[in-house]
């Protein structure tokens, strides 16, 4: 039976004291870290964000608190989340693989995709990554857990791939790792010193 990303799912994994694995304080620290990384490489404040697989868009409030006026766009494949929060939080319906063809009239200073890829099939990941690389102006934060990790949380449908698989898939579309699950695309790669990267050489 396929998973249903309804209100009960989000209540359990994001709000329940017995199941939630991330605290609001941890989210604030994570968003601040990612913004700092992006702005370091861009050389200016982040102006717009694309949040792929955003769920109920918890990043939106933190981003807007840290950077008032930032433009936020979320994409989510949960009918519940889009129906409930689509208008108020600027969330549109899309599956990750649709990023192969889905484009907007702008490129994004920051693209976020957290806790999504390790539930998807390889073909969908590779298709969607082409869109992320094409739309990326600044930094991508692609939070993924691998066979080598023990992240806790929802294990239903978790694909335990080795870290090297993701490194290869990201590298195929020109995403360069700069630490803490952050990646720059070809536009900013020339600004990255070799010892800032997480690649050998």
Automatic annotation (TrEMBL):
Annotated keywords: Methyltransferase, Transferase
GO biological process terms held by the UniProt record: methylation
A Pfam family this chain is assigned to: Methyltransf_23
One example GO MF annotation: methyltransferase activity
First and last residue of the signal peptide: none
CDD domains per the UniProt record, alphabetical: AdoMet_MTases (cd02440)
InterPro entries: SAM-dependent_MTases_sf
Identification of the protein by name: Methyltransferase domain-containing protein
